[in-house]
Every structure is written in structure tokens, then in C-alpha cells.
Amino acid sequence: WSDGVSGGRSRGFEPCGCPGRNPTPIYSINPSTETLDILSELVGLQQRVRTEPRLFGSALSIQRALQPTAVRTRAVPGRTCGASLTGTRPTLGPLSDFTCVGRQIFSAAFGSQSHGSRGQSFSKDYLFLTNASLPDTTQQNSEKYPDVSAPDLSERLMTPETPLKDSNQEDRSFSDSSLFSHWGQDLNSESRRVALKMFQYYGYNGYLSERLPMDRVIPDYRPEGCKNMSYPSNLPQVSIVFIFVNEALSVILRSVQSAMNKTPSHLLKEIVLVDDNSSSEELKEKLQDFVGETNAKRPGFIKMVRHSKQEGLIRSRVSGWRASTAPVVALFDAHVEFNTGWAEPILQRIKEDRTRIISPSFDNIKYDTFEVEEYPLSAQGFDWELWCRYLNPPKSWWNLNNTTSPIRSPALIGCFVVDREYFEEIGLLDEGLEIYGGENVELGVRVWQCGGSVEVLPCARVAHIERAHKPYTEDLTAHVRRNALRVAEVWMDEFKSHVYMAWNVPQEDSGIDIGDISERKALRKRLQCKTFRWYLVNIYPEMRMYTDTIAYGVLRNSLKNELCLDQGPDTDNVPILYLCHGMTPQNVYYSSTQQLHVGVLSPTIDDDDNKCLVDVNGRPRLIECSYAAAKRMKLHWLFTQ
């Protein structure tokens, strides 16, 4: 689903890159039978919305109250619950009114709308609550209104690349695959077929990777000042840990070769390979042969850790840390290539202060052509769903007028270098986080709140493959959501409400098991860590706060209960009715200032402002809240519970 996140570069589901969500998702969605049934309903719904414009009602439902005083009825998973309106007070109604499956629901009526400080109100025909028909494109209106009918499904749900599930899966046509957009036109049909199969399996061009040198030269994108720097010879040694599952052998070997070539031999103590239970046969015998040949020349230089079951990213990193022996540990994916001089600036910063956790600056290895693309220097942060994101460096960094200076970073994007003993002292990674997600944010927040710091070094550059799709995981969203709530409960104090809001989950009885957090809370107490408010004020002041939100959820149409307010296509700024699905485009937040925010919460002040529901000449529009307020537009909604 497109959710219109702006700002920051989008990346695939990668530990060393942010799991991006751009308007054209590059990851794969594999719909279940239930999803396909819903999609078939959507096809019919599009025509209904076009032919039945009078679907807007005068009362709406908001799900999932934020405040504990809200009127709620607790649902039992698999059962139905509901509420009906009597005047402006919600009362329990027939159980058939709503289907909520374990969610908390209360009903609400919207009264008159005030027009800023002018005090104007509209007792009947306000915004889309009227029964007016949709705009007639043949009318000669002063304002041209886009079609507000439901968009085609192709605009909302896309599966650009479907990972290969078995050898009998039918190939996608070559013309449909992004692999051949900029590469492979000179291949014959059989070679293209082989390349496509490998692309579907790995999420990148494994066919091309096998034909590239293991020790190829990549562009040096370091700032010029970095190339003239010198470092002491007595820097601490480093163990480089590579984590993988079903990675292409050629990509792993190139990562290892790159580490050996670009890290001074007296600083590189060992390489640790962590195989998280790969099923690929070439990662068994062939990889073991490579390890044996290397260790014959440098005894014990490469260590191999193999999991008997898939443990996930977080526990794999901890496995690699446990196997390492150098004073400093670097945790990376096994699809990276190191640039010249990457290690020395990192090791020097850690030698100066062992409580620093360092991230290199990342460049992109294009998944199709394997060309290395320069990325601009950035800090690393997160949004309220705890998806990591790239940030502009802070003003304090720009004021230095020195592009070689370390960049203070609120969080980490996944791959990092840390003093081995300090990492243990602050609690390693939270092994209660499952599979993927949240661990980078949790570590960054924990380090800052507990007395350490996080930096990105412009002089240390590492190129990283950004996959077109994650081939070995169906859907990471459930894991990321669960992990985000766990992190929020341990570290974010009263601001944990923002994470629940962003995921559109009730704070009480969410139905999501985040596991036992007593040990992590005890760790926080033992380390005497600061509050999350301190973190927001001093480390991440760019983060928007939503302490004035009093309710959040979805707006459900009272005449057609299966329809919800939806932000519609991002480019139109015209809200629509759409089959209720509860995903980000239908998230609604009601503030104490009587504003209705629709869609994703804007993460930082550097991003576009939130979209507010606004009455423009009696028509519904989504307009940036700050702009609408400055123009004294009709965006304040009187809410009666």
C-alpha cells in the first residue's frame, strides 16, 4: 500500500538500510486467499462508489480511543461488537453493528465545524458529511475538482517482483521485470531466464554478481578532506561479523574479499560468518571450502557460525558478537563492499571514547547493475512506527563547515561498529525482539539515554546492496509492529502512546504479545538512564510530538458501514471512501485543537506537515494543517462523544 511517506531515502527491508515505504513499493506482497477475496470485492466497490455518490453519512465512528476515559466495549477475538448513537452519547448496540475482532471501539458524532477564530459554524451541510453528489466534471466551477472515485487497484496494491517459491513457479515475462530495465538487453532468451530466476530468488542480480571480479574497484565517495587524514598505528583491532541467510555465494565472497582488501591487516583480527540456517546448498560445501582455503593461509582468520534453526537478524548479530574476540566488533550484512580507509576513522573515534557507537556512511549498490551510487551524507533516525529513516545532518554539523566531521545521529540503521565490552555493558541487543525490526532504534535510543552516543562518519564509507525484494520472508510488518511496541514500553515513557497511534493499535488489550520486558526495564534502571522526553528535547528535537491527540483510529461511514475515509491517491489530496482495511491511508487522528489528521503521521519538522481534513467550498480536501491554519480555512471539527 502506498502511504505517502516523504523525506529520507527509501530502502528495502535490509539491516544496513532503512525498510523504505515509497509510493511504488519495491518489496513483494503475496496476497492470501482472504486478501484475494477482499480484492474481488474492491473491484465491485469501485463501480459502486462511482455510481452511488450519496454514500456520505452524518455520523462517523472512530475506533481505538487514546484516553482511558473514552467509552469503549471490549471485543473478544473472533466475535463482533458494536455501538450505536443515541443523540451524542454512545450506547451499546446490537453485536451485528460492527466487526472488530479484538479491537476497542466507540462511536462518535461530529457536530458543527468552526472556522478558526471567526466562530462561524455550519449546522447541517459541512464537508463530506452532507449528502451532496460528487463533483460533476461538466459543470463550469471556479475550481476544478479531481475525480474522487476509488482508484484503480493498480494504484494501491502492487507486487513488482514476486520471490520465487519453487522451481515450478511460472516466470514473469521479461518485460515486466525491473531487472531488465537498465541491464541485460544483450542476453539471449535462456540467459535472461536464468538471470530472472536468480533475481527472484535473491532480490538482486545474482547472475551478474557471479561474473564480476571478487576484488573489483568501486568509486571513492569520501569527502576530499578525508583522503589527507592520518591515523595512529596503535588503533584497536576489529572483528568483522557478516550475517546472512540464503545469500548469493558470490556476494558473500565479495564482501569478505572487500573487507580483507580495504582493512589494514594489522587492524583486522578476524572475520566471523553467521549463517542463519540457510537452505542453499552452495552455502554449505562451497563456502566451507573457501573458509578452509583461507584459514590454511591465515589459521583461524575466518570463523563460521551456523544456526540449526532460523533465529532472525537480532539473535544472529548477538551470535556473531559472542564468536568475536577483537576489542571492537563491526556488525554488517554479507552484501556490502568496503571503501578505502573505512576502518581507521571509526577505530580512532571508538579509541577516544568507548561509549560511542559508530555507523559508516552508506552508498548504494544497485540491485540490477551493481553500479555503486553515491548517497548524500545523513544522520539516521526513525518515525513513530519505528521504521528507520535518513535525516539531514543537524544544524550544528553544518555550522562546522567541515564535511569530514562526525555527524551526531539519533539512531542507527542497522550496521554499526562498537567496543565489544561496552556493547555487553549496555545490554547487547534485546533478544526479546523477534526476527526483524526495532533493534536499530532500540539500540540508538538506549545508548543516548544511558550515557553513550551515536555517530555517522563521513570518512568511513561502505556500499550496500538494496534488494528489490526480500526473498526469504513473507511479510515483516507484523514483526516490526510487535517489536516497536516492545521498544516503546521499555524506553519511551509517556510517548509510547505515539507508537501505538502510529500503528493504529489500542494501548490497552492490544492483543499483541510483546513478551516479558522485566529484564529490559531492570537494565534501564541499573544503567540509570534518562527519560525519553530528555532524548526528544536534546537528541532528536526534529521529531514531531502529538501530545494533543485525544483519539485515533478510522472514520467509518454510517450509511455504508464497510466504507471508511481514505486519503486516496497521494497526488490528488482528495479523500475518498474505500473498503475499510485499517492500514495507514485510513488512519485518522483527532486533536484537542479539533483537527482531523488523515494518513501517516509526519515524523519530523523537516518532513511535509500532516494532512488535515478541510472544507473547501463544501468539498472535502486534504491540505497541510499548517497551511490550512495560516489561511484560516475550515479545518476545526467540533467533536461530541
TrEMBL record:
Subcellular location, record wording: Golgi apparatus membrane
Entry keywords, A to Z: Disulfide bond, Glycoprotein, Glycosyltransferase, Golgi apparatus, Lectin, Manganese, Membrane, Metal-binding, Signal-anchor, Transferase, Transmembrane, Transmembrane helix
Main localization category: Golgi
Gene: galnt18b
Protein EC: 2.4.1.-
Organism of this sequence: Clarias magur
InterPro entries per the UniProt record, alphabetical: Galactosyl_T_C, GalNAc-T, Glyco_trans_2-like, Nucleotide-diphossugar_trans, Ricin_B-like_lectins
GO cellular component terms, semicolon-separated: Golgi membrane
Protein's recorded name: Polypeptide N-acetylgalactosaminyltransferase
Superkingdom assignment: Eukaryota
GO-annotated biological processes: protein O-linked glycosylation
Compositional bias (Basic and acidic residues): 163-173
Residues in Glycosyltransferase 2-like domain copies: 239-391
Pathway: Protein modification; protein glycosylation
Gene3D superfamilies: Spore Coat Polysaccharide Biosynthesis Protein SpsA, Chain A
Record has Transmembrane as a keyword: yes
Region described as Disordered: 137-173
Family: Belongs to the glycosyltransferase 2 family. GalNAc-T subfamily.
PANTHER family: N-ACETYLGALACTOSAMINYLTRANSFERASE, POLYPEPTIDE N-ACETYLGALACTOSAMINYLTRANSFERASE 18
GO MF entry, a single one: metal ion binding
Cofactors, names only: Mn(2+)
EC class: transferase
Membrane topology listed for this record: Single-pass type II membrane protein
SUPFAM superfamilies, sorted: Nucleotide-diphospho-sugar transferases, Ricin B-like lectins
Boundaries of every Galactosyltransferase C-terminal domain copy: 407-466
Keyword Transferase tagged: yes
Upper lineage: Eukaryota, Metazoa, Chordata, Craniata, Vertebrata
